[in-house]
Write a structure and sequence with these properties.
- By secondary structure, this protein is an alpha/beta fold.
- It has three domains: 98 residues, Translation factors (Elongation Factor Tu (Ef-tu), domain 3, Beta Barrel); 120 residues, Rossmann fold; 46 residues, Dihydroorotate dehydrogenase B (pyrk subunit), domain 3 (Ribbon).
- It is built from seven helices and 16 strands.
- Strands 4-3-7-1-2-6-5 form a seven-stranded antiparallel sheet. A seven-stranded mixed sheet has the order 11-10-9-8-12-13-16, with helices on both faces.
- A hairpin with a 4-residue loop joins strand 1 and strand 2.
- It starts with a strand and ends in a 7-residue tail after the last strand.
């Protein structure tokens, strides 16, 4: 069930001059949310910007008894809407529509879950790491960025018991190059058992490569697709992605309704 909740800013933690983690109190959404889903945030009460902005649910926030009380968003300042989120102070209210979209499909232990994040593609994985831990699965995070200064929130994944493999394009931390470099090396020695699923979010070129690596090494992949969204509820058809049907024919699915999570092998990578 989707609700339009008046989410109240709890904290706004600056990570850098362009990134922050915005924690919001929103029980109605948090109690229904699953890893991989998103919300449409109205960043201004006026008409600038006019449309809501889609954001992946980063963390599901809980009270001392484990009851969901809110969620956080990983914010990158790039335009007017994200600037308003980046600048928000505690107590500010942002109407949020959610949870929206199809979540990740989680396996049960002893299955393996490897998360592959490129840059702000880290956004859906804090919640996924927690969900894996609750199922008795120790996840692995493969996380890449341009430089070490753009690797954020590692402590969240350490607390979730995740193994972390880093890569930076400039070689300032972890492997040198894109995150698919250490991923491919790890897959070469991964073996077929227990079953392994790759969960990926980031630039589309990275998603394409992750899906290809999964097929080559005989494991499943789920990719969280990013598209511009006008409405987030399927009405405007601005967020379509081409996928294969069961009979091999191709069609266009809406990322907001049929995704954002798709099986990697179903996406037609142009």
């Amino acid at each position: 069930m989707t609700v339009d909740d008046a989410a109240v800013v709890r904290t706004n933690t600056r990570l850098s001059g362009d990134f922050s983690v915005l924690a919001l109190d929103a029980r109605a959404i948090a109690g229904r949310a699953e890893p991989g889903q998103f919300v449409m945030v109205k960043t201004s009460p006026g008409v600038t910007p006019l449309l809501r902005r889609p954001y992946s649910l980063f963390e599901i926030l809980r009270d001392a008894r484990g009851t969901p009380t809110g969620f956080s968003l990983l914010v990158k300042r790039v335009g007017v809407g994200s600037q308003l989120l980046y600048d928000a102070s505690p107590g500010h209210v942002f109407p949020c529509l959610g949870p929206l979209g199809r979540p990740f499909v989680l396996a049960a232990a002893p299955a393996r879950a490897w998360m592959v994040a490129g840059g702000v593609g880290l956004a859906p994985f804090a919640a996924l790491a927690e969900a894996c831990r609750a199922r008795g699965i120790r996840p692995t995070l493969f996380y890449g960025a341009r430089t070490a200064a753009e690797l954020f929130c590692l402590d969240l994944f350490e607390r979730a018991g995740a193994d972390i493999v880093l890569a930076t394009e400039d070689g300032s931390r972890g492997a040198t190059g894109r995150v698919t470099v250490p991923l491919e090396q790890a897959l070469a020695g991964a073996g077929a058992h227990p079953p392994l699923t790759l969960y990926a979010c980031g630039p589309e070129a990275m998603l394409k490569q992750v899906a290809a690596l999964a097929g080559r090494h005989g494991c499943a992949s789920q990719v969280s697709m990013e598209r511009l969204m006008g409405c987030g509820v399927g009405g405007c058809y601005s967020c379509v992605v081409r996928v294969r049907g069961a009979g091999g024919e191709s069609r266009y699915d809406r990322v907001c309704l049929d995704g954002p999570v798709f099986r990697g092998e179903d996406v037609v990578w142009d």
